[in-house]
Design brief:
717 residues, mainly alpha, Methane Monooxygenase Hydroxylase, Chain G, domain 1, 25 helices
Length: 717
């Protein structure tokens, strides 16, 4: 019986692995284009490498994988940061060579100093890659005297620097020539995709009950809405670095990103409703919004003003499908404000513009750079593991496994799950790339006698590595390692490559580094992803509780929207971190809890989208006015929802259990209050919106109650 269960589990894991690889290796036009550009860059780099017989051709090739981005602007920024970081790191190493190269004990002490310093900088810099670019070359330079013969040490640092500059320069030139996209193009494409998703959501509603079965040309609105705006805001910063003429319009462009996100959130709320058949009035309003989104999308794509300036929401149209009215009114209001976010449009009005981060100070270091003890602990663990590996390979007189020291640095990540995941990808990539290199040496190179013949297997191996490298972050590092191991085998020198020992030594070095770092990482200040999931999720739920209480606090509706925007950014970031941590727990024990946490996260995200629509509608209701009793009933319902989120947060963190509020009773009281208000003849104008608000509460309360049920399952897991 046990053997049958084990066989079933093994078959399930194999199926999951095959499905994972099928998804991750799925071809796309963008992926093929990026693969072609990187392959051409590496092939082009072989010309100066062969002509000048460079001593470190491996670095010329492999650094291109680390720097190449989706757009030329990010590639340019990465190239400049890489050259700057390497120059600083090698400058420090040169200073040590001049002062202390002959003092062996001092050089050995500097190995953990440079490794730990590089890891510490990696955590405290806002641009982590700059810390890595400083630390890795400096640490590598400290172990070079134990790997290379003494006669080349006076030239090694220059070889290293020149290889880095040559590789990054050739790659940048190829990308600028062949990659048509820059950061501005990507930002426009992102906004266009999000507006197209809004149009698609409306089109499916207009198509009637069968509209949900219509094929989608891109990601659904709910998926895009939950991805947040962090990536677009980061793109905006890169755009402003490249195009100085856009800096004066930072506030307007930031507002445009925010408005499109609000449209997308409202569209996701629309998509969650199944209204059935629509009345003619509501169909006109929906079509009007879809046309406005299409007009705005074309204007953004063509960098021009929209053809129409859309007026404020038409509150006189009132169909019978009241559940659609709150998100529909939000979309109409946002469309009326979007022209203000276009350069030159802000002068018309500033009252409706949302808050922006125009006053945000640009930082070099993270806010808690010197107060968070985890950064120092992280650096100490990596430095200790690298030092142990250094002593092992020098004590055993086995310099071929120096890769163990580098493995300790690159696999030193924030959690045990993340480090294990990167270690698995590193070893798997080294094995695949090594096998490709061995096959090329044994069965391909003997039949070649020219540079043109060399380019064929070299380009093929590069294309395989580049294709994997341009996948999602879950697999891309494996592509980098495939290329590194392949080049290690085929770029051994400028004659026939016959030595296979380099492949074996690299695998042994990686395995040693993973074992040493893995043991230290689990014994000294262990940080498990599973232990961080619960506090991070609880903080996101508390932010949702704060969001639920906003409408009840009163005050200026614009201030409510401003605070809601700040909270939604926190919640976006929290959900993103939870998703990342849950993915990292795949390499840690606790599969049952992981599955329940994913279900809990999905329900929380669905509740978040409805809650956003409700907060926007409540801020509008403050402008419309209404009887005190109706507002008090809505406030009590808001308080019950907020208390539910806080009770969930406390339970997830294993704190003292809080009583679960009576959500059903609060909703019933709101229904009675709404019914009494609708019976008043003076409420005829706002009646459709009151019904729509009630529909949102009826949608939100079951979602929150399901969250409570999943939380109970999490406790049992």
């Amino acid at each position: 019986m046990e053997s049958a269960n084990a066989l079933t589990r093994s078959s399930t894991r194999t199926t999951e692995l095959v499905d994972f690889l099928r998804r991750e290796l799925a071809p796309t036009p963008e992926r093929w284009s990026a693969t072609l550009r990187l392959t051409l860059a590496c092939v082009a780099a072989t010309i100066p490498v062969m002509v000048f017989r460079l001593h470190l051709p491996l670095l010329v090739m492999i650094l291109m994988y680390l720097i190449t981005k989706e757009d030329t602007t990010a590639t340019l920024v990465g190239t400049l940061a890489g050259i700057l970081g390497v120059s600083i790191g090698l400058g420090l190493a040169l200073l040590v060579y001049i002062v202390a190269l002959d003092v062996t004990w001092l050089r050995i002490c500097l190995v953990p100093a440079f490794v730990g310093g590089g890891l510490f900088l990696n955590r405290i810099f806002v641009l982590p890659s700059l810390g890595t670019a400083i630390g890795v070359p400096a640490a590598l330079a400290m172990i070079v005297p134990d790997v290379l013969p003494p006669g080349v040490l006076d030239r090694f640092l220059f070889w290293l620097w020149w290889s880095v500059v040559l590789g990054l320069g050739i790659n940048l030139g190829v990308q600028l020539l062949l990659n048509p996209k820059n950061a501005l193009d990507r930002l426009v494409e992102t906004l266009s995709t999000r507006l197209r998703a809004v149009e698609g959501a409306i089109a499916r509603i207009l198509a009637g009950p069968d509209g949900m079965a219509l094929p989608q040309s891109g990601p659904p609105a709910a998926t895009l809405a939950l991805s947040g705006v962090a990536s677009q805001l980061q793109l905006l910063k890169i755009v402003e670095m490249r195009y100085g003429s856009l800096k004066p319009y930072h506030a307007e462009l930031n507002a445009l990103i925010t408005f499109v996100d609000r449209l997308l959130t409202a569209a996701a709320a629309l998509g969650a409703v199944n209204p059935g058949m629509l009345g003619e009035q509501l169909r006109r309003r929906l079509q009007r919004v879809a046309d406005a989104c299409a007009d705005m999308r074309r204007a953004i794509e063509q960098r021009r003003w929209p053809e129409h300036v859309w007026p404020s929401p038409d509150t006189t149209l009132a169909g019978e499908e009241n559940s659609l009215l709150p998100p529909l009114a939000e979309m109409e209001r946002v469309l009326a404000m979007i022209p203000l976010a276009l350069p030159g449009g802000a002068s018309s009005s500033t009252t409706a513009r949302p808050s922006t981060d125009a006053a945000e100070h640009r930082r070099v270091l993270v806010p808690d750079a010197f107060t968070n003890p985890e950064y120092g602990q992280f650096a100490i663990k990596g430095a200790l593991a690298a030092t142990v590996c250094y002593l092992i390979f020098t004590g055993a007189a086995y310099p071929g496994i120096y890769t163990s020291v580098i493995t300790c640095m690159v696999c030193s990540l924030s959690t045990i799950g993340a480090s294990t995941q990167k270690g698995v990808l590193r070893f798997a990539g080294a094995a695949i790339g090594g096998l490709m290199g061995v096959f090329t040496i044994l069965y391909v190179f003997p039949h070649l006698d020219s540079l043109g013949g060399f380019w064929l297997p070299f380009g093929a191996g590069t294309a395989v590595a580049a294709y994997v490298n341009f996948g999602s972050p879950r697999l891309s590092y494996c592509g980098y390692q495939i290329g590194l191991a392949f080049y290690k085998a085929v770029l051994q020198g400028y004659g026939p490559a016959t030595e296979l020992k380099v492949v074996k030594d690299r695998l042994i070095g990686i395995a040693l580094g993973l074992l040493v770092f893995g043991w230290i990482d689990t014994q000294l200040w262990p940080v498990r992803a599973a232990a961080r999931v619960r506090p991070t999720f609880a903080n996101a739920l508390r932010s949702m509780a704060g969001l639920a209480r906003l409408p009840s606090q009163g005050g200026d509706p614009d201030m409510i929207r401003s605070r809601a925007y700040a909270l939604r950014l926190q919640i976006y970031q929290g959900f993103g971190t939870v998703q990342q941590l849950v993915a990292e727990t795949t390499f840690e024990p606790g599969a049952a809890e992981r599955e329940v946490m994913l279900q809990l996260l999905a329900e929380a995200q669905a509740a978040f989208l409805v809650l956003l629509a409700l907060v926007q509608d409540r801020s509008d209701a403050a402008l419309r006015g209404g009887p005190v009793m109706a507002r008090e009933a809505a406030n009590r319902c808001d308080a019950a929802v907020a208390e539910s989120f806080e009770a969930l947060a406390a339970g997830i963190e294993d704190q003292q259990r809080r009583p679960w509020p009576d959500l059903a009773g609060a909703l019933a009281a709101l229904e009675r209050g709404t019914a009494a208000r609708l019976a008043d003849s003076t409420a005829a104008v706002t009646a459709p919106y009151d019904r729509g608000q009630l529909a949102l509460y009826r949608q939100l309360v079951p979602l929150v109650e399901r969250l409570g049920a999943y939380h109970h399952a999490l406790v049992l897991a």
